[in-house]
C-alpha cells in the first residue's frame, strides 16, 4: 500500500513541471474525461439515470443501500454486508451487467457482481442503463447495466477529502480522496476502508447475527496525461480486498468465512485527430476467492480467474449529425479452482455502432455485434434505438435489442455437475419510454417486454448431483417510473425523487412469477438544505416476493440523516453528519430467514481541503 | 388438513373410550394423531430453512404436511436428513441446522433439541441405552468425522468416536453399530463396525460410496455401494468405479458376496420387506432375493425416486422438484406393478418411515 502511494506522489510531482509547456487550448471531450463515451453518444433511445456527486455524497457508502433507495434496482442481500446481487426488470443478477469504466466486471465464475465489494465512495458517477445492452456491453446485459465511472478532470485543481465515521455494531469507516489536475494532467486517488462487527439483534428473537463481521478495503487510482496535443494516456486501477464471515439464517448457524480480492487495471491511449477518435485499451482483471467452511480452520476452497483484454475503438464523426464507432475486442480468461481445474476461454468480438441525428428532434442508433467464443456459438446481437423530442418538454424513446449471456465457468466446469453442452441464454427486448422535463420537475415512464430462452438453471439429477441445463423460457414485462424535483426559495433548497417499478416475470411453462422478483418496488427521498444545515429522509417499499414453495412478506424501511457544515467558505471545510437507518425499527427479511439490521445509528465527519 | 387431524383425534379418543368399556375385545390403541401412517422427511432446499415432515395415514386418506411446525409453532429447520425412532420418540436429524429435534413420535410434541456438539449430523441409531449420530464434521476435512454419542436422558452429546471420512447411515444390532462411509464431500469405501460398549472401531472395505444398509432375513448386513465417478487433475471425468451389492456376515465381519453392477450404473436407493430387497439403478426399480447370486436384469418398475420404502406389498417412492419447490409420494401396488395413488408433499420429499 505504502509503495503505491509513494509512486503516485512521485509521478504527480514529476509530471507537474511539464504541464504548462503544452497548449491548453484543448477541447475537453467526453472521450478524454470518460473511458466509456458510448454510454453517452450511442444511447439515444435508452433510458439512463445518473447518480452524481450530490447523491453519492449524502448516501450510504454501501452501493447496495445507495441503489436500493435511489433507483429501480432490486437487491438480494444474504444478510447485511454479505453477498449482494442486483437485478432489474425481473431478470437475475447474472443478467445484470456491471461496467467499470467501460469494462464488464461481472465474475467469470458465477456471472454476477457482488455489490458489497464495491464502495460508492470511489466513483464520480454511477449510471443505470435500463434494458438490454449486449451490443455495447457484452454478455449479461439483459435486464440492464450499471456503470461505475471515474472522471478525469483536466483543469487546475487540488482537492482532498478525509472522512471517518462510527456507528452501531462497531462499524468503522474511513476514507481518503484526493484529486489533482492541470490542463495536461489529471489524477484521482480514493481509499476506503470499512470494518464492522455487524452483530445486530434479530428483532423479536433472542438471537444476534453471530457470524457476520466484515472488513474490506477499496483503492482506486486513476491517471490521465496528454502526451501530445492529440494523445492522452490514461490509467485506471481499482483494487478490493475483503474478508467476511458469512451470516447464517434463523435456523442455520454459521461458521464460514470468505476472503475475496479483485484487481482491475487498464491502460488506455486515446488519440483525437479531426473526425477520428481512436481509443486503444489493454488491461488485466483478476478475481480470487477463498471460502473457509469453518473460519477456525485453515481448510479452504478457492477460485481464481485472470482476464486479459485488448480493445480498440474508432469513432468516426462524418458530420455534426452522423457518427459511427467500430470496436474490436479480445478477451482471454484463465481460471483455476478447487472445483474446476484450469479452464480457459477466449472471446473475440466485433461491434459497430451508428448514431444519426436526423433533425434537431429526431435521432436514432443502429448497433450490431458478433462474438466468437471458444467452446460455443454466441448469437449475433443487434439493437435499434430512437428518440423523438415531441415538444420542448416532452420526449419519446424507443429501443429494441437482442441480448445474450454466456455460461459461466461454474456452469461449464464445476465438478461435479458442470455441463459443457450449454448454449448461451438469448433474449430479445422492446422498450418504450416517455420523458417530461420541466424547470423544477422531471418525469420518466418506461414500459418494456423481455423474452428470454435457454435460461440456464441448476437442478439436481437422479443421483442428486446438481447440474445446469438450458431449460427454461421466461418473459418479463412491466413499467418503471422515475420522478425528480428540485426547488429553491431563497436559501431553502428542496429535492425530491421517487421510483416505482411494477414487474411481472414469469416462467413461460408454469406461468408463475419467478422467485425473488417483487411485483412492486418503490422508493422516495426528500432532502432539505438551508445554509449550513441539511437533512434527508428516504423510504423504500419492497413488495412481497415468491420464494421456493412459499412467499416472503414485503416491507417498508425508512432512513434519515442530518448534516451541518462548519467553516463553509474557508480553506478547510468540515461537515458533520448523523444518520439513522431503519428509523422505524422494522423487522424485515430481504432473503428468507435472514433478518436485516434493526434501527442503527452512524456519525460521520468529513473534512475537505 | 387440520380438520382431519381433529377428526382423527376425536376418533382416537372415541376408540380409547370404547376399548375401556370393552376390556374383553382388544383393539389397537391409537397412540396419537400420527400413528398408523407414514412419516416422510422433506429435506427442503439447502440453506433455505424449509425442511419439514409430512404424515400420510396408512389408508392414504389423511395427508398432513409441515406436522412439526403445525404442532410446535416453529420451523423445523434447514435440510432435514433422517429420522430415528425409539418406542416413544422420534429423533429428527436436521443437517444444516446442526441439530436433532426430539419429538413424541405419535403426537410430534417437541421434547428437546440437541443443538450443541453437532456439526454435520446425518443419521442416528440406538444401542447400549444411548444414541449414536454420524457426523461429517467439516465437509472439507477428512480428519474430524465422528459418531457422536448422545445421552438420551439429558439429550446432550456426551462423547464422540472418531471414524473415517464421511460416515453416513448407521444401524445397530446386538450392541454393535454399523456405519456406511459414503464419504461426505469426498468418497469412501468402508463400513465401520463399532462396539457400543467399548467404542472400539473395526472397518470392512467394500466398494466405493456405500450408503444404504439393511439386515436381511439371513441376518446378513446388506450394503449398497453406489460407485464413484473418477476425475483427472482438471476435474474431467475419466471413468467410473463399480457399484455393488455387498453381503456381510456380521459374526466375523467377512464379506459373503459382492454383486457388481455394470460399470457406470449407479445404484442408489434400497428397501427391504418380506425377504426381498428392492433397489434403484439406472432410473428403474429392481428386486432380488437374499440368496440370489447374480443381479436381476429385468426391472419391476420403470420409475425412479428420491426416497424408497416397501411395506405390505406396496412400494412407496418420493419425488421432488427442488426448483419448483414441490414433492410427491407415489404409491405402487407390487402385485400389479402399477401406480395407484400420488400424494402431494413438500420440497425435498425423501425418506419414508412407517409409524
From TrEMBL, chain A:
SUPFAM superfamilies: Porins (SSF56935). Its main location: membrane. Pfam families: Plug, TonB_dep_Rec_b-barrel. Keywords: Cell outer membrane, Membrane, Receptor, Signal, TonB box, Transmembrane, Transmembrane beta strand, Transport. It is found in: Cell outer membrane. It is a multi-pass membrane protein. Belongs to the TonB-dependent receptor family. This is TonB-dependent receptor. It comes from Mariniflexile gromovii. The lineage of its organism: Bacteria, Pseudomonadati, Bacteroidota, Flavobacteriia, Flavobacteriales.
UniProtKB/TrEMBL annotation, chain B:
Gene3D superfamilies: YVTN repeat-like/Quinoprotein amine dehydrogenase. InterPro entries: DUF5074, Haem_d1_sf, Host-pathogen_enzymatic-act, WD40/YVTN_repeat-like_dom_sf, YVTN_b-propeller_repeat. Residues 1-22 form the signal peptide. Pfam families: DUF5074 (PF16819). Keywords: Signal. This is YncE family protein. The keyword Protein biosynthesis does not apply. The lineage of its organism: Bacteria, Pseudomonadati, Bacteroidota, Flavobacteriia, Flavobacteriales. It comes from the Bacteria.
Amino acid at each position: 500500500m505504502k509503495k503505491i502511494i509513494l509512486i503516485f506522489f512521485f509521478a504527480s510531482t514529476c509530471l507537474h513541471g511539464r504541464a504548462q509547456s503544452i497548449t491548453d487550448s484543448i477541447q475537453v471531450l467526453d472521450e478524454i474525461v470518460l473511458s466509456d463515451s458510448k454510454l453517452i453518444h450511442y444511447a439515444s433511445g435508452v433510458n439512463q439515470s445518473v447518480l452524481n456527486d450530490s447523491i453519492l455524497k449524502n448516501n450510504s457508502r454501501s452501493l447496495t443501500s445507495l441503489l436500493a433507495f435511489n433507483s429501480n434496482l432490486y437487491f438480494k442481500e444474504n444478510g447485511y454486508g454479505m453477498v449482494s446481487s442486483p437485478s432489474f426488470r425481473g431478470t437475475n443478477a447474472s443478467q445484470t451487467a456491471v461496467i467499470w469504466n467501460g469494462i464488464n466486471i461481472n465474475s467469470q465464475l458465477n456471472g454476477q457482481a457482488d455489490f458489497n465489494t464495491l464502495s460508492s465512495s470511489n466513483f464520480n458517477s454511477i449510471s443505470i442503463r435500463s434494458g438490454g445492452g449486449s451490443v455495447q456491453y457484452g454478455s449479461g446485459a439483459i435486464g440492464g447495466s450499471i456503470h461505475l465511472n471515474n472522471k478525469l478532470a483536466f483543469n487546475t485543481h487540488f482537492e482532498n477529502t478525509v472522512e471517518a465515521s462510527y456507528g452501531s455494531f462497531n462499524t468503522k469507516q474511513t476514507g481518503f480522496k484526493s484529486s489533482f489536475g492541470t490542463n495536461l494532467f489529471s489524477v484521482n486517488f480514493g481509499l476506503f476502508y470499512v470494518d464492522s462487527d455487524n452483530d445486530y439483534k434479530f428483532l423479536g428473537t433472542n438471537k444476534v447475527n453471530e457470524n457476520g463481521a466484515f472488513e474490506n478495503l477499496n483503492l482506486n487510482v486513476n491517471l490521465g496525461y496528454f502526451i501530445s496535443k492529440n494523445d492522452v494516456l490514461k490509467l485506471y486501477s481499482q483494487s478490493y480486498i475483503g474478508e467476511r464471515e458469512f451470516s447464517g439464517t434463523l435456523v442455520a448457524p454459521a461458521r464460514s468465512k470468505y476472503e475475496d480480492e479483485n484487481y482491475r487495471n487498464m491502460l488506455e491511449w486515446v488519440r483525437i485527430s479531426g473526425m477520428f477518435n481512436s481509443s486503444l485499451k489493454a488491461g488485466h482483471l483478476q478475481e480470487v476467492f477463498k471460502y473457509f467452511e469453518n473460519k477456525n480452520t485453515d481448510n479452504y476452497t478457492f477460485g481464481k480467474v485472470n482476464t486479459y483484454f485488448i480493445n480498440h475503438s474508432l469513432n468516426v464523426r462524418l458530420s455534426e449529425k452522423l457518427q459511427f464507432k467500430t470496436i474490436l475486442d479480445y478477451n482471454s480468461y484463465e481460471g483455476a479452482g478447487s472445483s474446476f481445474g484450469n479452464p480457459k476461454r477466449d472471446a473475440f468480438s466485433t461491434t459497430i455502432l451508428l448514431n444519426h441525428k436526423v433533425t434537431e428532434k429526431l435521432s436514432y442508433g443502429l448497433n450490431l455485434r458478433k462474438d466468437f467464443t471458444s467452446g460455443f456459438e454466441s448469437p449475433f446481437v443487434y439493437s435499434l434505438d430512437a428518440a423523438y423530442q415531441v415538444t420542448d418538454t416532452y420526449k419519446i424513446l424507443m429501443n429494441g435489442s437482442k441480448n445474450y449471456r454466456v455460461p459461466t465457468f461454474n456452469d461449464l466446469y464445476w465438478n461435479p455437475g458442470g455441463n459443457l453442452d450449454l448454449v448461451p441464454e438469448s433474449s430479445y427486448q422492446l422498450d418504450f419510454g416517455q420523458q417530461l422535463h420541466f424547470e423544477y420537475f422531471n418525469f420518466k415512464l418506461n414500459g418494456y417486454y423481455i423474452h428470454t430462452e435457454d435460461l440456464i438453471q441448476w437442478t439436481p439429477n437422479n443421483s442428486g448431483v446438481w447440474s445446469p441445463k438450458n431449460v427454461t423460457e421466461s418473459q418479463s414485462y412491466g413499467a418503471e417510473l422515475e420522478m425528480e424535483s428540485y426547488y429553491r426559495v431563497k436559501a431553502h433548497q428542496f429535492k425530491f425523487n421517487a421510483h416505482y417499478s411494477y414487474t411481472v416475470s414469469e416462467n413461460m411453462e408454469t406461468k408463475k412469477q419467478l422467485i425473488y422478483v417483487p411485483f412492486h418496488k418503490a422508493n422516495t427521498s426528500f432532502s432539505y438544505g438551508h445554509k449550513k444545515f441539511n437533512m434527508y429522509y428516504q423510504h423504500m417499499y419492497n413488495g412481497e416476493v415468491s420464494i421456493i414453495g412459499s412467499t416472503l412478506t414485503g416491507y417498508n424501511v425508512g432512513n434519515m440523516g442530518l448534516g451541518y457544515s462548519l467553516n463553509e467558505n474557508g480553506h478547510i471545510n468540515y461537515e458533520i453528519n448523523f444518520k439513522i437507518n431503519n428509523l422505524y425499527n422494522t423487522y424485515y427479511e430481504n432473503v428468507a430467514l435472514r433478518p436485516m439490521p434493526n434501527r442503527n445509528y452512524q456519525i460521520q465527519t468529513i473534512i475537505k481541503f | 388438513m387440520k380438520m382431519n387431524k381433529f377428526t382423527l383425534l376425536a376418533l382416537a379418543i372415541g376408540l380409547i373410550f370404547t376399548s375401556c368399556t370393552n376390556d374383553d375385545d382388544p383393539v389397537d390403541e391409537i397412540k396419537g394423531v400420527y400413528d398408523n401412517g407414514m412419516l416422510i422427511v422433506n429435506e427442503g432446499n439447502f440453506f433455505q430453512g424449509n425442511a419439514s415432515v409430512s404424515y400420510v395415514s396408512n389408508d392414504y386418506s389423511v395427508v398432513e404436511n409441515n406436522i412439526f411446525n403445525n404442532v410446535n409453532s416453529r420451523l423445523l429447520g434447514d435440510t432435514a436428513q433422517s429420522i430415528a425412532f425409539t418406542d416413544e420418540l422420534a429423533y429428527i436429524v436436521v443437517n444444516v441446522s446442526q441439530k436433532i429435534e426430539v419429538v413424541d413420535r405419535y403426537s410430534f410434541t417437541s421434547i428437546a433439541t440437541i443443538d450443541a456438539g453437532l456439526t454435520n449430523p446425518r443419521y442416528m441409531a440406538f444401542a447400549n441405552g444411548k444414541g449414536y449420530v454420524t457426523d461429517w464434521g467439516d465437509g472439507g476435512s477428512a480428519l474430524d468425522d465422528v459418531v457422536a454419542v448422545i445421552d438420551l436422558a439429558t439429550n446432550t452429546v456426551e462423547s464422540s468416536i472418531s471414524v473415517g471420512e464421511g460416515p453416513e447411515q448407521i444401524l445397530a444390532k446386538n450392541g454393535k453399530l454399523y456405519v456406511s462411509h459414503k464419504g461426505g464431500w469426498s468418497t469412501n469405501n468402508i463400513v465401520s463396525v463399532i462396539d457400543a460398549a467399548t467404542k472400539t472401531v473395526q472397518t470392512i472395505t467394500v466398494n466405493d460410496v456405500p450408503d444404504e444398509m439393511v439386515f436381511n432375513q439371513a441376518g446378513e448386513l446388506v450394503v449398497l455401494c453406489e460407485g464413484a465417478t473418477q476425475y483427472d487433475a482438471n476435474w474431467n471425468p475419466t471413468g467410473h468405479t463399480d457399484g455393488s451389492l455387498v453381503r456381510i456376515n456380521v459374526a466375523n465381519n467377512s464379506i459373503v458376496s459382492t454383486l457388481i453392477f455394470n460399470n457406470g450404473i449407479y445404484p442408489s436407493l434400497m428397501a427391504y420387506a418380506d425377504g426381498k430387497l428392492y433397489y434403484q439403478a439406472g432410473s428403474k426399480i429392481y428386486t432380488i432375493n437374499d440368496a440370489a447370486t447374480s443381479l436381476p436384469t429385468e426391472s419391476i418398475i420403470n420409475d425412479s425416486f428420491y426416497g424408497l420404502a416397501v411395506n405390505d406389498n406396496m412400494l412407496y417412492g418420493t419425488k421432488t422438484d427442488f426448483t419448483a419447490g414441490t414433492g410427491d409420494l407415489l404409491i405402487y401396488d407390487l402385485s400389479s406393478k402399477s401406480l395407484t395413488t400420488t400424494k402431494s408433499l413438500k420440497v425435498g420429499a425423501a425418506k419414508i418411515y412407517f409409524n
